Backbone:
């Protein structure tokens, strides 16, 4: 119960704190809570070491920035970028994220993919003016999509999908906070339905991945549409780049799931046989229409 409390309350504390020291402490408490929640020695050690090193880099930047002791702002910002990307498991510092994510159970997996990303995203929001953030964000989107081409494993696809979507969210941190929250909420909702079905042949898996890729009229399409509309006000070039890789993502998922649908065509006619799938499909179809009227 204690680890879950630390994990759930840390994002709310991070969003409400003004002290840099307290902010850093809450992030570390969240990491401790997640380590206790995993209940796996090997994965816990890997997570502890990576989070500790990332925290040292972040603390270095915060202390020197607060005390106006920065010799080179660009170097310090690069150090901050490395620290945040290491803590989030984004490219090119993603290997630990793949190793842990492929071995842990469903509940810790969901937390790793969602709640543990909130605090680093908040720091991105505060420091997005750093020149290195957009560069690393583009790397996560581009290489995350390319790495998906080399795997048919659903869990690995979902891990790389997380890297890609976090790249999108990092871009959103420089714009309206409401767009970022809405994107993160939709992304979390999709994973909430998708992850429990990972080991089954349910149509929920196909719909979930198609939604993450942004296929209309599923919920994920509006997630990507909101982001692209926001990006277009900043740079049409990068909006087109993100759109192209989103289309490539769709083709990758079709490559994985189309052969499976041919092997089990009866699944297509059994979509409404499961109550869980009914809720999933209803939320994906009805919620987008709700967004239209916002």
Residues:
């Amino acid at each position: 119960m204690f680890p879950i409390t630390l994990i759930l309350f840390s994002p709310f504390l991070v969003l409400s704190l003004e002290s840099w020291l307290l902010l850093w402490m809450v992030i570390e408490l969240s990491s401790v809570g997640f380590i206790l929640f995993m209940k796996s020695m090997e994965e816990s050690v890997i997570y502890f070491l990576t989070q500790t090193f990332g925290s040292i880099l972040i603390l270095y930047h915060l202390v020197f920035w607060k005390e106006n002791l920065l010799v080179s702002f660009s170097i310090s910002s690069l150090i901050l970028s490395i620290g945040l990307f290491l803590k989030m498991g984004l490219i090119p510092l993603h290997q630990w994220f793949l190793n842990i994510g492929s071995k842990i159970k469903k509940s810790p997996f969901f937390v790793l993919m969602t709640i543990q990303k909130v605090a680093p995203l908040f720091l991105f929001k505060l420091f997005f003016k750093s020149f290195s953030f957009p560069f690393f964000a583009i790397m996560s989107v581009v290489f995350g999509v390319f790495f998906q081409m080399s795997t048919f494993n659903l869990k690995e696809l979902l891990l790389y999908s997380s890297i890609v979507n976090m790249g999108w969210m990092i871009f959103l941190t420089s714009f309206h906070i409401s767009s970022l929250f809405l994107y993160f909420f939709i992304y979390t909702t999709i994973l909430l339905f998708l992850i429990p079905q990972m080991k089954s042949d349910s149509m929920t898996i196909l719909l979930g991945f198609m939604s993450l890729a942004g296929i209309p009229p599923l919920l994920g399409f509006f997630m990507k549409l909101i982001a692209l509309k926001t990006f277009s006000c900043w740079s049409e070039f990068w909006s087109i780049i993100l759109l192209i890789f989103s289309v490539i993502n769709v083709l990758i998922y079709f490559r994985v799931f189309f052969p499976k649908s041919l092997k089990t065509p009866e699944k297509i006619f059994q979509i409404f046989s499961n109550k869980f799938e009914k809720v999933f499909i209803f939320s994906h179809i009805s919620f987008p229409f709700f967004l239209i009227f916002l």
